[in-house]
Every structure is written in C-alpha cells, then in structure tokens.
Design a protein that fits this description.
The complex is a heterotrimer of chains A (288), B (532) and C (400).
Chain A lengths: L2 E2 L17 H20 L5 H29 L4 H41 L33 H24 L3 H33 L6 H33 L9 H26 L1
Helix pairs in contact in A: 1-2, 3-6, 3-7, 4-5, 4-7, 5-6, 6-7
Chain B lengths: L1 H6 L13 H6 L3 H29 L10 H36 L7 H9 L1 H16 L17 H4 L2 H30 L12 H32 L13 H35 L6 H15 L14 H13 L1 H15 L8 H23 L2 H7 L3 H31 L5 H28 L13 H30 L33 E2 L1
Chain C lengths: L17 H5 L2 H6 L17 H34 L16 H35 L7 E8 L2 E6 L4 E5 L5 H4 L17 E4 L3 E8 L4 E5 L4 E5 L5 E6 L4 E6 L12 E7 L1 H23 L4 H15 L1 H4 L35 H7 L15 H12 L12 H7 L1
Parallel strand pairs in C: 1-5, 4-10
Antiparallel strand pairs in C: 1-2, 2-3, 5-8, 6-7, 9-10
Helix pairs in contact in C: 3-4, 7-10, 10-11
Classes of the chains: A mainly alpha (288), B mainly alpha (532), C alpha+beta (400).
Bound molecules: heme-A (2 copies), dinuclear copper ion and copper (II) ion.
Chain lengths: 288, 532, 400
C-alpha cells in the first residue's frame, strides 16, 4: 500500500474532544447504582442509599456531559464528517436495542411454542402434570389463575397514541426542514405529551392488572413475558420522552437548523423504533 | 460549514493534555486508551490465572485438600469470566484502539469520549465480579457466583448474592463492549483514508469489523437473558421454571446464542492479525485477501446459527440435533480457507523466525488441534460422550489459550516496538515462547485423555484412575503460569527502554501503520494519507 | 491424538503408577510403558449406542489426525525449504493464478465437504436417529430423578423405588484414611438392570439440572426440573458400571455417582422381589407407633444421609447459604396446628414441601413417612434443640 500526504476530501480536521473526566465519573455512578441495587435486593440496609448516590452521580454527569456536547456543537466544532460518525453510532446503538428486545420476544415465542406444548405433551403414562393442556395464555402447570389482558381497550388506545405521536414528530421535522419554528416547537411538545399520556395509561393498566385481574409478574410465563416486554418498552418510552423533552427545550432556545440537527434526528429515529416495537408488541402480546 | 472549521482553534488540543494520572483518567486519545486496555488485560490475565492455579493445586491429587467445593465452584466460574471478559476481550479491544486508526490512516477513533467511557466501564465490572470474594470475608453473602461461567438456571436462580453481582457485571461489560463496537464500526466505516476501499482494508480491521457486528447482535441477547434471570431470582417471574410454564433450556438458548458467537468474537481479531504477521516474516504478500474477508463474514454468519451444539444432551428433538450438527460442521469450511491462506502465504516466502513469527506458527498448529477437536465435538452421538468432560475443557483451552492468548501475544510482540519505540529482548521472547508451548501442552494434552476416560469437568475431587494425568496437568499449569512472568518482564523492559526501533520495525512490513514513526506521534494521522 | 485401539477398561488403579509420578511427569510421559495399560480412550462400551459412539470416535480421530499431519507436514516443509537463512527469495503471488492453481485450491474444500457431510455426517446421522429412538420395542422403563446430590430410581412396572447416595466416607475424601478402590464411585443402593433388555430411561429432576452419565453405556442425558427427558440402554454384559453426574449442580456436584449393576434376567427378578419385600416392611413401620428413642435413632441415621450435606452433621449449617437448624426459629416453632393441620412455613412444612427458589427441596417426594417423622423429631431434640416433642409417621401420612 502506498500513501502520500496529499489533500483529502476531508480537508478539515477531525474534532477530537479535549480529555474529559465525565466518562470515569459516569462509570463510578453506574457502579454505585448496581452495587446499591444488589444490596437492596438482598436486603442489606445501605442498599437504597448507595443506589441514590449512584443515581445522583449519573444524573449530574449526564447533565454536564450533554451540556459539553451541546456547547461544542453550538461552537460549530462538528462538521459533516463528525456528524456522519454520530449517525452511524446511533444506528448501531438502535441495532443493539433491537437485539435486546429480540431476546424478550424470543422468550415469548419459546414459551408459547416450545415449552408450554412440551409440558403438556408428555407421554401420558408418565406425565408430570395430569391435567395440564397446552393453551395460551397460561400460567403454567402450577400457576395461579388470572385474567389475560385484552387488546381492544387501553392497548388499542395506546397504539393510536403512539402512532399519532409518530406523525406529530414527523410534522415537527418538516417544520424544522422548512424553518417553520413554531410548527417544530408545537410538534415536539405534542409528541412529548402523547408519550406521557401513553405512559399514564400504561401505569393505569398495570395497576388494574395487579389489583383486579390477578395478572402479576408471577402469573406464570404469560405474566412474566407480558410485564417484561411491555415494561421494557415503557422504560424506552420514558427514555425517549426525556430525550424528546431535551430536544424540545433546545428547539425552543433556537438550536438546530435545516441542515445540522443530528440530535433531533437521533431522537426521532429512537422514537420511531420504540413505535415499531409497540406495534409488534400489540400484535403478539395483546392481540394474538 | 466546512470552511467554518478553519476559523476555530481546535489545534489547541494537541499538546494540551493533562499529565500524570489525570492524563490516563481523562484521555480521549486512542493510543492512551489502547494502552490502558492492554494493561488492564494483562493484569486481569494474572488475576484469572492465579485463580485457576488454586483450582489446579486442588486437583493435583484426589481428595479435598485446599478448599471447599463451594469455593472451588466459585473459582472456576470467575476464572472463566475474568479470562474471557476482562483479559482476552479487552486485549483485543486494546489492539483495535491502537492499530485501527494507524492502519486506516485516521486521526483518532470516531467517537473518542465514548471510547474513554468504554474503557472505564471495565474496572467497575471487574470489581463487581470479584468483590463478593472479599465481601464474604466480612460475612456479607456467600461468595462469588458458583455456577460456572454459563450461569445455567435454575442453579443460578437458587444461588447467592454472587449471582446478582455477576449479572450486573455482565450488564456493564455488555455496555462497554457495545460502546467499543459502535466506535470501531463508525471508525472503520467513516474514517478510512481516501482511496482505501473496504476490500483494500487491512485484514485486522476486517476481523474487528465482523467482531463488532457480532458483539452488537449477540451481547444484548445475553443481557436480556441475565435480566430474566434477575427477575426470576427477585421478582417472581417464571421464565426458567416449569411450574409457571417456563423452561431452564430457554436460558441455555439465550446464553449460547451469545456464547457461541463469543468464541469467534474472541478469535476473529486474532485471525485478522495473523496474515499481517505471516506476510511480514515471509516477506511475501498476504495470500487470498478477498477470500479471507469473505471467510470472516461467513464465520460471523454461521457462528450465529449453531449455538445449540453446547447442549446437545439436553434432549432436543432429532431434527434440531441434526440441524445443529451439520451447521456446526460447516464452519470448518471457512476456517479451512483461513488455514489454507495462512499456509499459502508462507509457501515460497523467505521466512525468518522472530518471536512474533514463532507465536504465529505455534498458534496455527495448536489452534489446528482446537479446531479439529471442535469438529468432532459437533457430532451429536459422540458428543454424548465428550460433553461436559475434560475433553471439552482441553478443546477450548487449545482455542482460548493457544488461539486467543497466544494470538494476543503474537500481536504484542509484533507491535510492541511500534508502540514503545523500543525493541523487546528477542532472547527472552524466544524463551517465553518455548516455555509456553511446552508447558501449555503439558497442561492440556492430558486433559483430552482424562475426558475420554470419563472425567467430568467442574469437579473438585475425582476417582483414582484420573490421578496421574491430573498431576501432570497441574505441574504443567504452574510451569505455564510462571512462564508468563517472563512475558510481563519482557514487556516491562521494553516499555522502559531498549534498542531503538525504526518506523518500519520489521523487514517485510506492509501497511500505513509502518509509515508513522515508532512510537507514533500523539495525534496519529493529522492529515489523512491517500491510498492508491 | 490418541491410540486408536480401545483399551480394556481399568476400573481403578489406586497408586499403581505413583512411581512414575515421583520420577516427574516429563519422565513419565517419556516412559510410555508406565502408561501402557492406562485408559487412553473411551472405556469399553457395553451397549449398542456405546459401541457406535466409540467406533465413530475412533474413525474421527483417524480422520482428524490425518488432516492434522497432512496440513502441518506441508507447513513444516515450507518452513524448512522457504527460509531466509537458506537464501530463499520470496515469491510475489497473492492468490491462485491459472486454472491448475485454482484446481489445487479447490481440492481441499471438496475433500473437506466430503469428510464433513459424508465420512462423518452419514454415520453420525444413523447414530443420532438410533440414539433418540427410545420407545420402539422397549422392554421396561426406569425413571431417574436427580436431586441435590443423589439419584432417585423408580421402576414403574414393579413399584420399586429407592434413593442412591454416595457412600465414600468423609475420612477418605479428607485424606484421613486410605482411599478405597471405588473412591467416589460407590453408592448405597445400586440400580439393578437386566442384561439384554431395552430399558427406556426417563429423566427428570426436582431442583436443578443434573446429567445422568455412564461412560460405558455411551449415554449422557440431562435431567431437567419439571420436564421429562428420555434415553435408552441395552446392556450386553453383566457387570457393575460406574459414572457420575455431569452437569454442575451445586456444591456436591462432584459427589453424586451413578452405579448400575447389570445382571441376568432371573437374578433381576429375584432382586425385584427382594426390594418389594423390603419396601413393604418399611411401609409397615409407617403404621405402628414409634417411641422417642426409636425415632431419634432412625432420625439420626436418615438426617446424616439426607440433610447433613447442607445443614451439616452438627446442625450448624453453612450460613448464609445453608441455615443452621440448631436454634432455628422454624425448627423450634410449633409442630402442627392444634387440629393436626400443617402450619405454613413451619418445620414440617419446610421439610415436606421445601422452599421454592432455594436449595431446600420438597422432601415428601423422596422420603418415606418414617424418615420424615424421624428426622423432624431428631432435629427438634438434637444440636442443642430441646423441644421434647415428637411426630409419628402416621401423622405425616395424613398430611400428604
Ligand atoms: C475461541 C474459542 C473457540 C473456538 C474458535 C471454537 C471453535 C469450535 N468449537 Fe468450541 N468451544 C469453546 C471455544 C471455542 N470453540 C468453548 C469455550 C467451549 C465450551 C464452553 C463451555 O461449555 O464452557 C466450546 C465447546 C464446544 C462444543 C460443545 C461441547 C460440549 O460441551 O459438548 C462444540 C460442539 O460442537 C464445539 C465445536 C466447535 C467447532 C466446530 C469449532 C470450529 O469453529 C472449529 C473450526 C476449525 C476447524 C475445523 C479446523 C480448521 C481446519 C484445518 C486445520 C485444516 C483442514 C484442512 C483442509 C484444508 C482440508 N465447541
Ligand atoms: C480466555 C480464556 C481462558 C484462559 C486464558 C484460561 C487459562 C487457563 N485455564 Fe481455564 N477456563 C476457561 C477459560 C480460560 N482459561 C473457561 C471458559 C473455563 C470453563 C469454566 C466453567 O466451567 O464454567 C475454564 C476452566 C478451566 C478448568 C476446568 C475447571 C473445571 O471444570 O473444574 C481448568 C482446569 O484445569 C482450567 C485451567 C486453566 C489454566 C491452567 C490456564 C492457564 O493458561 C493459566 C495460565 C496461568 C497464569 C497466567 C497465572 C500466572 C500467575 C502467576 C504465575 C501468579 C502471579 C501472582 C499473582 C497474581 C499475585 N480452566
Ligand atoms: Cu448433579 Cu451435578
Ligand atoms: Cu460453540
């Protein structure tokens, strides 16, 4: 291979940020959070305190860190070249999230199609469970009874909410592209609102499930997969809503222009990804 | 926008980095971070090794001499997790950090601050993994995870606080690896010197590209699996409990969906590095560059669909058994391509045998044994006999130590002069090589026979007919461990000083990384080179 | 890799080769003679599956040894011929050039395909199908249940059932006594199976995954809690065959051997009758009223066999994993409710029903009424516990 130091398409200089103390502090915060949680689960008294300390450190550092990034951006430190790295980073990050959800969907598929039929389908002469038949929903051969969650009440409303929020977000994006700032701001605020309402409904649904339907985390594999999938999704909606709120705040203070708005797009991708996951959830968890 | 950058003063960041400890804590420089990864890896290699020396000492003779079975179980699992996640993977990431920007003509990694975070997640994770040992001394909990590195439910559901520590350690390690992978992918896709098409890209970078994609695909699944384990342990779910309709085998699927690709994650960077070393010391171009690229990709794809060969005795249906058997066997095809290319690279070259070349050759032969025994393990019927016996332990140490660790050592000897600007001691290096190869075989060759004769793995005590081979293996293990002190000593001396290395270092080198001085300047390629 | 002739199985070779050890392992390796009668390969198989497996294994070892030798002979030839010190000049090629080279490049892959999918693939296919055919023409059923850390065996045809536990004394394990011939591979109740019959083996577990493995049968199958798994054996030679649990199952994983005694059909029938008689004698004990002294004696014996692994012979347990029974709130709590019912989370409840998610299993599945009554009584009046009360087997029976 041969090289010469000629001028290149990236005639600019790739921005290498200053040394930063944030990452190591963030890691320390995560360590404390994990340690505290472990202690809490195993009923050691200092657990909640250690956890709180960890969470505080994390929140503080994130403020600082994102603040630094936003400042660099406003300074114009980033060119198209850096922008492309960010985009690639975000795409692959969402890819890893897809696989995270895939693990839980995989568990649901496995329980429904492999383990429950296997438990019901043993040689009748020697079966371990006399009257267990394969059916879904189920809480397994020894589970307590419960009422499964129907699809056409709150879940259907929630579907509509999230789909609408996808639309408002795209509408906001159009506003940004056409420099209609009020459309941008309104669209973002609506999106966040829709997200929050979604979460409110979900909280209500959980409450109802626990208090009136006997549907708990402990309700066999149905309860386990139901709460794991919808809960993990809800957690992502929460994160997405927070990130959207941050972006909305930045928009209100005049950040971003039609050409350079990586943060906006990253959050938008994330939000759409969360939407798509919901649609899948709606179909395989609630409906089928 | 482009023009605007010139008016900004970010050339100020060149020399201005903190010195002393703060330089290391805060650095965003790919070489500094690479050095930290390598140092951490070496340290943890000794920690993991010291643990297993305890195990080997217990296994020196039949009977329980040194430790309780509970503690024995903790040592083997933590040994494995430390060696894999805290020694071998960080070493490979260290290589990536150091070498990828140099090789592709980039000024740094694409996401430098993230890079720093990726590294600094490792020490907390390692701490979480090993802390329960210490806590137990103070009467908190019952020690580290005692389930083996595979964390099989329901044993891990019933286990103590150590399992929780391991779960969160894995979560944090997972975030670290995913951040590292994202960074490497973005660097490779976005930072290559003009003219360097993907197909012209050096094989080491290709090995890592496939590795990074595999990590992003598989690690989240492991994270999901251990999360379900956590909820089964503490939040009443029944993912792995038949009473609620769950299945312990589900955990095995989730674990090995990650676990099998993991073995290629560990070795792809090494397979990427080998052609560089071979072509340098044979003074001949790499044979079959394109073929090797496609083999890496094929290994990645096949690696994702063969996971159940790790639990062929769990009672899978016949069609599944046959599928996993044949798909596993088919991985021998792309690997044969690699072996073929390695040997064809050597063929009609002009070889000399410096330490890196010796390690590369040792790697090829010993990893050949690992691969060929892997091939027979894939056979479902014969696997009923091999499974969970010492035959498997021998197989994977040939892959992990002779393939992984010796592969990393190949790279260290090969690149150390470039990194430090000094030559290491060739005499010590050769001595280290021969001691390692001999004591390695002394340790693990007998384990093949132990396995065939019927010795199960993960037992602290064994029947009398296994005594002789175990004694030999233990003697070998201590010799192997001691030999590694030579390595540490050699590296240390080289970092401290020694004969100056030229930019090219070796006679037959090829590639951008050899055009920069040894050691390279703080910012690697200020201006990108153009590749023709 | 290995010598390719199956060596006759040497059951155990206590200290016979200690000499070679003293001389140092390197010497021992060099003097191959010392190892001439050592097991270098699978122990002699005694079932059709075992024979299949061994012959496949031998064939594969030949194949991979040949591959290894051929590939590395080429490499070593190159290392000798093409070295700089002998003045070799490097060629320039970086891929196959011309039809002939392409041909030579592709031949190894054609060979490998043939090896993988024909030479190895076809016999493996037949072996797998045969191995998994557990039900066709099965003569009898044996049900095996893994427990931490013992095996329970049931013969559904005759109703015989028993638990099989390691008998190697602790003194041998701790090196205070010379180790016996079958160190770690000996049990109180051997499984007895008739020679020449196809035995369908069903496996399950009550706590964690265990793996039932007898090397000479070529059979290894997981026992998974809550599920049934199957395998089969047809033992062709009478004899005693020893194996071990092969899945890490907790602290005493290394101490749960499998011992199978294969006997001719008539001898088997006699054994079944004897076992049945023993069982009805034991059941009879369940109806009589036991004295405190009888319960304590029986309780001590059963406790040490079933509970001491975790709670220790002195009742101190191994906290925090395994709680002490000495002074335990549960053990020193009330026995039964005034109307003779089970109190949740009481002593009797814990022993009979265990505690899910912990190593404490439900012992009502494996212990007889007498055992449970005796153990409970023993625990309440030992290790410093002085409750002075007792429970009768009949009361336990009523609670089932
Ligand atoms: C880096 C690590 C690594 C690597 C590379 C491999 C590679 C392979 N492994 Fe291994 N394996 C492990 C690490 C690794 N393994 C570990 C850690 C375990 C145990 C985990 C645990 O239970 O704790 C394990 C266990 C394991 C099992 C489960 C055994 C059991 O528990 O019952 C199986 C079964 O199929 C298997 C198969 C294979 C195969 C087919 C390959 C293939 O990739 C090998 C392919 C290579 C070749 C086939 C050789 C190449 C060819 C030649 C030398 C030239 C041929 C010549 C011509 C040109 C004609 N491995
Ligand atoms: C990269 C991975 C890796 C590496 C490098 C190693 C390295 C070694 N391993 Fe490991 N091993 C595994 C991965 C690895 N192993 C895995 C995955 C398992 C399965 C675990 C399970 O069952 O769950 C395993 C299990 C395992 C077992 C089986 C345990 C059992 O089943 O009961 C044994 C037994 O001999 C063993 C031995 C060794 C030895 C002797 C080394 C040697 O190479 C180590 C060399 C020694 C040193 C490097 C020590 C140097 C240190 C000193 C000289 C002292 C220095 C002093 C201080 C630190 C103060 N290993
Ligand atoms: Cu039972 Cu291991
Ligand atoms: Cu594998």
């Amino acid at each position: 291979m041969n090289a010469s130091h000629a001028s290149t398409p990236h005639s600019g200089h790739y921005y290498v940020p200053q040394p930063s103390i944030y990452p190591i502090i963030l890691s320390a915060g995560m360590f404390l959070l994990a340690l505290g949680f472990i202690l809490l689960m195993n009923k050691f008294a200092p657990g909640p305190w250690v956890m709180t300390a960890g969470a505080a450190v994390i929140i503080l550092v994130l403020f600082k860190w994102f603040g630094a990034v936003i400042a660099e951006n406003q300074r114009g430190a980033y060119t198209d070249w850096e922008d492309k790295s960010f985009r690639q980073g975000m795409v692959w990050f969402i890819g890893s999230e897809v696989m995270f959800f895939a693990a839980f969907f995989g568990a649901l598929f496995y329980c429904r199609n492999i383990s429950v039929p296997a438990l019901a389908g043993m040689d009748p002469a020697f079966t371990l469970y006399k009257d267990f038949t394969a059916a879904w929903p189920t809480s397994g051969p020894k589970g307590a009874s419960f009422t499964p969650m129907g699809a056409w009440g709150i879940p259907a409303i929630n579907t509509a909410l999230l789909l609408t929020s996808g639309v408002t977000l795209t509408w906001a994006h159009w506003g940004l592209m056409k420099a209609k700032r009020s459309q941008l701001n309104l669209g973002l605020i609506l999106t966040v609102l829709l997200g929050v309402i979604f979460l409110g409904f979900q909280a209500y649904e959980y409450h109802h499930a626990y208090t009136e339907m006997g549907l708990t985390m402990g309700a066999g594999v149905y309860g386990a997969t139901f709460f794991m999938l919808t809960g993990f999704h809800g957690f992502h909606v929460t994160l997405g809503a927070i990130m959207l709120a941050v972006v909305a705040g930045r928009c209100l203070s005049g950040h971003f222009d039609a050409k350079r708005h990586f943060a906006f797009e990253a959050v938008a991708w994330y939000w759409h990804f969360v939407d798509v996951v919901w649609l899948l959830l709606f179909v395989v968890v609630y409906w089928l | 926008m482009n023009t605007a950058t010139h008016t900004l003063d970010h050339h100020g960041d060149h020399a201005h980095h903190p010195t002393g400890i703060l330089r290391w804590l805060t650095t965003t420089n790919h070489k500094d971070i690479g050095t930290m990864y390598m140092t951490f890896a070496l340290l943890m290699f000794f920690v993991g090794g010291a643990m297993i020396l305890g195990v080997r000492a217990e296994l020196f003779q039949p009977g329980l001499q040194l430790m309780k079975p509970e503690f024995f179980n903790q040592l083997i699992g933590v040994h494995a997790l430390v060696m894999i996640f805290a020694a071998l993977m960080p070493a490979a990431t260290g290589f990536a950090n150091w070498m990828i920007p140099l090789m592709i003509g980039a000024p740094d990694m694409a996401l430098p601050r993230l890079n720093n975070w990726g590294f600094w997640l490792l020490p907390p994770a390692a701490l979480l993994l090993t802390m329960p040992f210490v806590l137990a001394l103070f009467g908190i909990g019952d020690g580290a995870v005692a389930t083996g590195w595979t964390l099989y439910a329901p044993l891990s559901v019933q286990g103590g606080i150590g399992v929780d520590f391991a779960i969160f350690s894995i979560h944090i390690l997972g975030i670290s690896s995913i951040m590292g992978s994202i960074n490497i992918i973005a660097t490779i896709l976005n930072m290559r010197a003009p003219g360097m098409t993907l197909m012209k890209m050096p094989l080491f970078c290709w090995g890592w590209l496939v590795t990074a994609v595999l990590l992003i695909i598989t690690l989240p699944v492991l994270a999901g699996g251990v999360t379900m384990l956590l909820t089964d342990r503490h939040f009443q779910t029944h993912f792995f409990d038949a009473a609620g309709g769950g299945d312990p085998i589900l955990f095995q699927h989730l674990f090995w969906f990650f676990g099998h690709p993991e073995v290629y994650i560990l070795l792809l960077p090494v397979w990427g590095l080998m052609p560089h070393v071979l072509s340098t010391f044979t003074r001949k171009p790499v044979y079959g560059h394109t073929a090797q690229v496609w083999s890496f990709i094929a290994i990645g794809v096949l690696g994702l669909i063969v996971w159940a060969h790790h639990f062929l005795t769990a009672g899978l249906p016949v069609p599944a058994l046959l599928y996993f058997m044949y798909s596993t066997m088919s991985i021998s095809l792309p690997l044969a391509v690699l072996f073929f290319c390695w040997i064809a690279t050597m063929w009609r070259g002009s070889m000399s045998f410096e330490t890196p070349m010796l390690f590369a050759l040792g790697f090829i032969v010993l990893f050949g044994i690992a691969g060929l025994t892997g091939l027979v393990l894939a056979d479902v019927a014969a696997d009923a006999q091999y499974h969970h016996s010492y035959f498997v332990v021998a197989h994977f140490h040939y892959a992990l130590f002779a393939g992984g660790i010796m592969g990393v050592m190949t790279g260290v000897y090969f690149w150390l002069p470039k990194w430090t600007g000094h030559m290491y001691s060739e005499k010590l290096g050769k001595l280290h090589f021969w001691l390692t190869v001999i004591s390695f075989n002394l340790t693990f060759m007998p384990q093949f026979f132990l396995g065939l004769a019927g010795m199960p793995r993960r037992i602290p005590d064994y029947a009398l007919q296994f005594a002789e081979f175990n004694a030999i293996s233990t003697v070998g293990a201590f010799a192997l461990g001691l030999s590694q002190l030579l390595f540490a000593w050699n590296v240390w001396r080289c970092v401290k000083g020694g004969e100056k290395a030229s930019a090219e270092v070796w006679e037959g080198t090829d590639g951008l990384e050899w055009q920069l001085s040894s050691p390279p300047p703080y910012h690697s390629w200020e201006t990108q080179p153009v590749v023709k | 890799m290995t010598t390719l002739n199956p060596q006759p199985h040497q059951p155990a070779l206590p200290f016979r080769h200690r000499l070679s050890l003293l001389a140092g392992p390197v010497l021992a390796l060099a003097s191959g003679a010392a190892f001439a009668d050592y097991t270098w390969n699978f122990p002699t198989p005694v079932t059709p599956i075992g024979r299949d497996t061994l012959s496949m294994h031998n064939q594969f070892m030949v194949i991979i040894t040949v591959l290894f030798v051929v590939v590395f002979a080429i490499m070593i030839y190159s290392m000798i011929k093409h070295r700089k010190s002998t003045g070799a000049r490097p060629a320039k090629f970086s891929g196959p050039t011309g039809a002939v080279q392409w041909f030579w490049t592709l031949v190894p892959f054609a060979m490998l395909l043939f090896i993988d999918f024909v030479l190895m693939g076809i016999p493996a296919f037949h072996a797998v199908v045969d191995m998994e055919d557990t039900r066709t023409k099965a003569d009898m059923v044996l049900k095996v249940t893994g427990l931490q850390w013992k095996w329970k065996y049931e013969y559904p045809d005759s109703g015989v059932q028993f638990v099989s536990t390691l008998t190697t004394p602790r003194e041998q394990i701790e090196g205070k006594e010379a180790k016996g011939e079958h160190y770690l591979l000996e049990v109180d109740n051997e499984v007895v199976l008739p020679v020449g019959k196809k035995v369908r083996i069903l496996l399950t577990s009550t706590d964690v995954i265990h793996t039932w493995w007898v090397p000479q049968f070529g059979v290894k199958r997981d026992a998974i809690p809550g599920f049934l798994r199957e395998t089969w054996v047809r033992i062709e030679e009478p004899g005693v065959y020893r194996g071990q649990c092969a899945e890490l199952c907790g602290k005493d994983h290394g101490f749960m051997p499998v011992v199978v005694r294969a006997v001719p059909e008539p001898e088997y029938a006699a054994w079944v009758d004897k076992k049945k008689a023993e069982m009805s004698a034991a059941a009879a004990g369940g109806d009589k009223t036991w004295t405190m002294a009888e319960l304590l004696a029986k309780g001590k014996e059963s406790y040490e066999k079933n509970c001491a692994a975790c709670h220790q012979p002195n009742g101190q347990g191994l906290p925090p994993a395994f709680p002490a029974l000495a002074g335990s709130k549960i053990v020193t709590g009330p026995l039964l409710s005034p109307d003779g019912k089970l109190i949740p989370d009481s002593h009797v409840d814990r022993v009979m029903n265990g505690k899910t998610g912990t190593a404490m299993q439900a012992f009502k599945a494996t212990l007889s009424d007498v055992d449970i009554a005796a153990i409970v009584t023993y625990e309440r009046n030992s290790f410093g516990n002085t409750k002075g009360d007792m429970i009768q087997p009949a009361q336990i029976k009523a609670l089932r």
